[in-house]
Amino acid sequence: MKHKINKKPYNKNKPLVNLFYKKKYKNKFSYFIKLSFFLTMLASVLFSSQLHALSFPDKKGKIVKSGENYIIRLTDTKNKKQKTLEALFTVNASPISCFNVIYDIDRYPEFMPNITGTKNTNVTLQSTHYSFETKFSLWDFNYKIELEDKHKGNTHILKWHYIEGDFIDNTGSWIIRPNSKTADSSLIYYRVYVDPGQFVPKWVIKKLTSQSIPEMIHAIRKLAPVYQ
């Protein structure tokens, strides 16, 4: 006796719907193998969407990388040539611990990707200046920035402004606040705009977004609990 699953006609334009139609399958075994595969893939997609449930507050730009509780995107920059890179991620540590890691610039060469040297060049009540030495693939860049930090309750903000160096521009910020979805953890928003003043190959941008930024996130996650 033939196994009847559904009497509706087979429609070649609706492959997912056809999964439940008998006409496509020669026997029960092939049907249930196909169905099991479909349900497994569906469960994987649903689990992945929960794992990467973070989202930016707007729909601007393009998501270029996502992983375990982090997402990275590129957005257009108003009146600028280059894209702005943004990352949103969580860390299992308090906001002040995360801030202390990010503000420990003297140790950046030890844990931040592409940074080979830093030097504090000026500290006053009004500002802090740092010089950076960086190496990325075939390029070496030296530049100086001014840091500005603000604190309001459990929210900590660190901004930097470009002063001089091998770039045309290099500005960005960190915003660190409590993660409302998980106790004793932080939600970090990272933004950086860099204009090197020369053509940047797509593979360089791809490497930055797919490798360097995830490495940076991993380093902060690893060190933040130690800075409690």
Kindly describe this structure:
With 228 residues, the protein is α+β, with helices and mostly antiparallel strands. It has two domains: 36 residues; 174 residues, Alpha-D-Glucose-1,6-Bisphosphate, Chain A, domain 4, CATH 3.30.530.20. It has a nine-stranded antiparallel sheet. Strand 1 and strand 2 form a beta hairpin. The chain is globular. The chain starts with 14 loop residues before the first helix and ends in a 5-residue tail after the last helix.
**Helix and strand string, N-terminal first?**
HHEEEHHEEEEEEH
Any idea how many domains?
A: 2
As laid out across the biggest beta sheet, the strand order is: 1-2-3-9-8-7-6-5-4
Number of strands: 9
Give the helix level as a range of percent: 25-40%
**Biggest sheet descriptor:** 9 strands, antiparallel
